[in-house]
Amino acid sequence: MAVKETAKDALKIVMYLGSNRNPRACSRVAKFVQNALVKTNHEVTVFDPWELDLPVLKQAMMMVKDWSTLPERLVRANEALVASDAIVVVSGEYNHSIPPALSNLIDHFPLSSYAFKVSAIVCYSPGPYGGMRAAMQLRAMLGEIGTVSIPNIFGIPRVTGALSEEGEPLNDHMESGVGKLITQLDWYAKAIRDRKRENGTP
Amino acid sequence: MAVKETAKDALKIVMYLGSNRNPRACSRVAKFVQNALVKTNHEVTVFDPWELDLPVLKQAMMMVKDWSTLPERLVRANEALVASDAIVVVSGEYNHSIPPALSNLIDHFPLSSYAFKVSAIVCYSPGPYGGMRAAMQLRAMLGEIGTVSIPNIFGIPRVTGALSEEGEPLNDHMESGVGKLITQLDWYAKAIRDRKRENGTP
Amino acid sequence: MAVKETAKDALKIVMYLGSNRNPRACSRVAKFVQNALVKTNHEVTVFDPWELDLPVLKQAMMMVKDWSTLPERLVRANEALVASDAIVVVSGEYNHSIPPALSNLIDHFPLSSYAFKVSAIVCYSPGPYGGMRAAMQLRAMLGEIGTVSIPNIFGIPRVTGALSEEGEPLNDHMESGVGKLITQLDWYAKAIRDRKRENGTP
Amino acid sequence: MAVKETAKDALKIVMYLGSNRNPRACSRVAKFVQNALVKTNHEVTVFDPWELDLPVLKQAMMMVKDWSTLPERLVRANEALVASDAIVVVSGEYNHSIPPALSNLIDHFPLSSYAFKVSAIVCYSPGPYGGMRAAMQLRAMLGEIGTVSIPNIFGIPRVTGALSEEGEPLNDHMESGVGKLITQLDWYAKAIRDRKRENGTP
Questions:
Q1: Of the four, B194, C159, D30, D174, which is 20 to 30 A from B109 by CA?
Q2: What is the model's pLDDT at position B158?
Q3: CATH superfamily of B9-199
Q4: In this complex, do C107 and D95 lie within 8 Å of one another by their Cβ atoms?
């Protein structure tokens, strides 16, 4: 993996967290993935349900006419999303399904903010299966909101033994796993970005 | 369909709604299904995200030691769930996925409250596919929380043309559709209830 | 787990294998699960795609009027399925999806042969995630064919290190994992069987 | 929709059919989609399980060292797949799941033949839900084999009333539905193709 970018051409990535608690296992995975993205010259903006603290969705942004009635932080977040090239979801699972805090966060934004973007999934679990059950629902959802989900999914079983609290890898699979994911994400996101620049979108 | 019950042996059903708005298409479906359940001698308790108005899940009930710190309405709802024989989910879809208000509601309760219960899915959409995409994620989730999902799924495409605001059927498929669902739900829920009474649970 | 049965009341289980090769990792899992089922007084009939050697489905049995034109082994297998109380699927994944040999085998039989039966999933993988991606599709499929899928799924990551070729457990999770699955399967299958005996089916 | 191509730059599309029978509803959908693709200057090669008549997968091509032992038609089909830019799957559902003839066909080919390709789903059903349940499993599978699945899915409920046997549209939704799908497919497939030409693949 040798993704090298001039700063001006760096991909803009929005990283969604799936956890609505703090402290949480999600933080170690998020730190690790964010570090790996930054090292490979990607710009990362984090969407954290715990910080954004949004209510359970009643009306999505696209149904609201006057956005001045919306929380400022939600409008700011949407601007970052619109400006981004790709999204990366870092999530565990809740009852082996998508955590409600995550689907709630995803659903707040207009579909137009997701259109013609690339998405990637990093999932984890305290136990043996790496969050793959929620990841399967998430891949479906990421397609339905209008992103193309890259084939590679990076799943981390027994997460507290795999990454330290500071997001340092504790086994040999972490670096290669995240590397494969980022290489693929970078490739697809640039394919999409370049076509948008040259041809616009339909 | 000829499900007849003495009041004392009626199945107790908790009906989850998937909508966090009001007014909403969900109400017409909920009224229709509730009427059909009551007519066939089932007792129905409604769990409505809009009325229960729960925050985005931070900590599930099973993680909370002192339930006196929880909202009274949540503790009451859990008591109704524990006392129930089956759950029926009446939901549309959000971005063709499970509405966050619904997964949030489901996830608040302890897994022990769902164990050895039967579940059924009624889904709908304003458009042609009847909410089947969310239903597929929902069937997975209902299994993972510990219920057995009955095979029949009752999907209602173009819902506002299928049921009136008062929940009256506007086409020929509604009565037969809900009838099949309830017959199957009733059969399975009694199978499970009777074994629980005689043998307990493992 | 203390499931004890007189021979006459033993549950009849059909065990589907997902592998169409031989030798294969599937055999060690199948032996292990079959041994565990027999030890707990269950009768097991194995449906093996490699032995049954069915063609890719053109016409399901329920579309065929004259079953004397069908392979004898298929008609015999269907008789065993009709007589059974539950099915257990033991399968890896193919491209992280249901192996075609398995869906092909399942689809040959009439839906009436599956109705009011209980199903359980044992999945495995050579790698870390235990076959959970295929299991999610399989749980959906098992619902759609008319069975109720028990909540517990027994997933075995790194299968060749977990079970010997003879189906002997090589780590501590195997016995407890299969035990939980069988206890739950047994409980649900008897609930369904007893209601069928007493009330028939709708 | 105004996708116009010089012949030399036309996208090469492989169209997978999901049906292993003849006559079949699949043919009317396939004709309709193929016509629409050709009219918009795409080259289409059809992979038809009924014509290719492959056995139930025992060993995928990537496991076979000497391809001269394989059926000639399978090796030829793989060459067409390797040369293609995108795949379109036209499929109904079997027990609301992926037809085994389709997953069998998909699984025969090496993963390297799918890598960095775009995929699209056209699904249909005789009844009301348009095959969306199988489509959800198919989207998962298309990701796992290494393609990126475009967000739009074109589902056709009550297919025999929607398209004639010759693939002529019988209602107003057909042209707009296939148009949206092709516009999106074309856009993504060119994004991917252009980046492959200029940068290769990782």
A1: B194
A2: 98
A3: Flavodoxin domain (3.40.50.360)
A4: yes
Residues near A27 by beta carbon (within 8 Å), at least 6 away in sequence: A19, A165, A167
- ipTM surpasses 0.90: yes
**B18 interfaces chain D, CB cutoff of 8 Å:** no
Residue D144 region by backbone torsions, left for phi larger than 0, else alpha for psi between -120 and 50, else beta: alpha
Kindly list the domain boundaries of chain A, sorted by start residue. 11-199
Contacts 24+ apart (CB under 8 A), A21-26: A21/A50, A21/B58, A21/B59, A22/A50, A24/A50, A25/A92, A25/A124, A25/A126, A25/A159, A25/A160, A26/A90, A26/A91, A26/A92, A26/A124
Cβ atoms within 10 Å, residue B104: 26
Subunits with 3+ Cβ pairs within 8 Å of C are: A, B, D
Nearest residue of B to residue D129 by CA position?
B129
Rg (CA), chain D: 16
Task: Flag whether pLDDT at A3 surpasses 70.
Answer: no
Chain A positions touching D11 (Cβ under 8 A) are: none
Phi then psi for residue D89, to 5 deg, are: -100, 125
pLDDT digits (tens, 9 = 90+) for A101-160: 999 999 999 999 999 999 999 999 999 999 999 999 999 999 999 999 999 999 999 999
Q: Would an 8 Å CB–CB cutoff place B19 in contact with chain A?
A: no
Of B147, B149, B192, the CB nearest to C191: B192
Task: Tell which of A95, A133, A153 to mutate to test the C interface (max C CBs under 10 Å).
Answer: A133
Tally the residues of chain D. 202
Model-level pTM?
A: 0.96
Superfamily of domain D10-199: Flavodoxin domain (3.40.50.360)
D127 touches chain B (CB under 8 A): no
Q: pLDDT digit string (tens) for C33-80?
A: 999 999 999 999 999 999 999 999 998 899 999 999 999 999 999 999
What is the rounded CA–CA span in Å between residue A111 and residue B94?
Answer: 11
Ranges in chain D, pLDDT < 70: 1-8
Report B:136-175 residues touching D (Cβ under 8 A): 136, 155, 157
**Contact state of C191 with B195 under an 8 Å Cβ cutoff:** yes
Alpha-carbon dihedral C81, C87, C90, C93, rounded to 10 degrees: 90
pLDDT at residue C144 greater than cutoff 70:
yes
Hey, is the C-beta of A51 within 8 angstroms of any chain B C-beta?
A: no
From chain B, the residues in CB contact with A103 under 8 A are 94, 97-98, 100, 103
Taking the Cβ of residue B107 and every Cβ of chain A, the question of whether any pair is shorter than 8 Å is answered with yes
Whether the CB of B49 is below 8 Å from some CB of chain D: the reply is: no
C130:A128 CB<8 A: yes
Which of D195, D198, D201 would you mutate first to test chain A, the one with the most A CBs within 10 A?
A: D195
Task: Assess if CATH 3.40.50.360 describes domain C8-199.
Answer: yes
For chain B, 202 residues long, give each residue's pLDDT as a single digit of tens.
444 555 568 999 999 999 998 889 999 999 999 999 999 999 999 999 999 999 999 988 999 999 999 999 999 999 999 999 999 999 999 999 999 999 999 999 999 999 999 999 999 999 999 999 999 999 999 999 999 999 999 999 999 999 999 999 999 999 999 999 999 999 999 999 999 999 999 9
Q: What would the CATH number be for the domain defined by A11-199?
A: 3.40.50.360
